[in-house]
Amino acid sequence: MALLAGGCASEVVPARSATPTALTEGFRIVPEPAFNASGVSPVQPIRIIVTDGTLLSISLRNDEGADVAGELSDDQRQWVATEPLGFDRRYTWSGTAFDAEGERFPIEGSFRTVKPDTVVNVQPNVVDGGLYPRTAPIMLRFSAPVGDKAAVEDAVTIDVDPRTAGAWSWSDDDTVATWRPEQRWEPDTTVRLLADLYAVRLAEGHYGASDVDIRFRITPD
């Protein structure tokens, strides 16, 4: 098979005669990310697509031989990974696709995920199931300075009932992000802190170590 490189994905075009028929000339195997890609984010979409054909079998394995969970579309033309990948791992595709004429073509290729210089841990000031006073802020303490504060703020969702307005601030050393309500919390407010920080690029070479998902409550009086 010939490999055509291009951007975020590559097209694997089956080697055929010089004059392919109309039924087969549209057949492509498109991996995302491209075969041989490096520095891939562990949380970016990982998939393989077949045009004018179907996937007979497909697997994606890490460098320890463990399969990555995924889902095959109903039309058997796309497989999508359904779990995040690990840092600094080589992942290998293996499978077979059919073109519109029923001819089989192997799927073979690999890519490598990004290798962080530093994996940054985060420690919230609240715990799951906790009860806190109406003046309590939400704080995220990072194990290294955060260069891209917007990336953190975009990755965090604070779901509050009743709805409560608030704003972020940062410590002078860029290691603590604090979210405070504009006014005191309403009594008996319920809060969910969801921070999708795993593999988020926080600074040059620095990536988030894990996600945060915490539910807590404000005192009733």
Notes on the structure:
With 221 residues, the protein is mostly beta strands. The protein has 2 domains: 2-112, Immunoglobulin-like; 118-218, Immunoglobulin-like, CATH 2.60.40.3710. Helix content is 3%, strand content 45%. The chain has one helix at 149-155; strands spanning 2-4, 11-13, 28-32, 47-51, 53-61, 70-72, 78-81, 90-99, 104-112, 118-120, 122-124, 131-132, 138-142, 156-161, 166-170, 176-181, 190-195, 201-203, 206-208, 212-218. The strands form 6 sheets. It has a 4-stranded antiparallel sheet with strand order 3-4-7-6, with no helix packed on it. The N and C termini lie far apart (69 Å).
Salient structural properties:
20 strands, 45% strand, Immunoglobulin-like, mainly beta, 3% helix, 1 helix, 4-stranded antiparallel β-sheet, 2 domains
Our estimate of the beta-strand percent is: over 45%
Listing every helix as H and every strand as E from the N terminus to the C terminus, the arrangement reads EEEEEEEEEEEEEHEEEEEEE
Give me the side-by-side strand order of the main sheet: 3-4-7-6
Q: Helices and strands: which structural class?
A: mainly beta
Q: For this entry, what is the oligomeric state of its chains? A: single chain
Task: Summarize the entry for a quick read.
This protein has 1 helix and 20 strands.
List the helices and strands and how they pair.
Blueprint: E1 2-4, E2 11-13, E3 28-32, E4 47-51, E5 53-61, E6 70-72, E7 78-81, E8 90-99, E9 104-112, E10 118-120, E11 122-124, E12 131-132, E13 138-142, H1 149-155, E14 156-161, E15 166-170, E16 176-181, E17 190-195, E18 201-203, E19 206-208, E20 212-218
Parallel strand pairs: 10-19, 12-20
Antiparallel strand pairs: 1-2, 3-4, 4-7, 5-8, 6-7, 8-9, 11-13, 13-16, 14-17, 15-16, 17-20, 18-19
